[in-house]
Amino acid sequence: MAARQPRFNQHVLIDTTPLPDSIPKVKEIGASSAPLLSASFFIGARCKAFNDDYMVCKTQAKGTGEFDCMREGRKATRCAASV
Fold first, then answer.
1. Which of 54, 59, 70 is nearest to 20 (CA)?
2. Which listed residue, 43, 57, 70, 74, has the most CB atoms within 10 A of its CB?
3. Which of 49, 58, 55, 57 is nearest to 79 (CA)?
4. How many beta carbons lie within 10 A of that of residue 73, not counting itself?
5. H helical segments located in 1-83
């Protein structure tokens, strides 16, 4: 067995810059991939319109969708959290 103690370097990075008021506030889901994968069928069925809006926005943004489509992404996240 190893005589050396394990070291973990995991820091939580938090951006304290507030988002603009035009982007709706939403709490993050906070689930790992396993529960999200098991619920993905239900999330996809219930939130199809929000997910489609987000994907159309990202396609039209041509590479800058992470910033331009934040509103649509938040709506999709809010819908997924409600499932």
1. 70
2. 43
3. 49
4. 20
5. 33-46, 48-61, 65-68, 70-82
* Bigger pLDDT: 63 vs 71: 71
pLDDT tens, 35-69?
Answer: 888 988 999 999 999 999 999 998 888 877 677 88
73 to each of 2, 28, 47, 49, 77, how far by Cα in Å? 45, 11, 11, 12, 6
Specify the pTM: 0.61
- Residue carrying the six token digits 């991939």: 33
Structure tokens at 16: 């304290």
Say if residues 29 and 76 touch (Cβ distance below 8 Å).
Answer: no
Rounded to the nearest 5°, which phi and psi values hold at 81? -70, -25
Would you say the C-alpha torsion 17, 19, 21, 22 has a positive or negative sign? positive
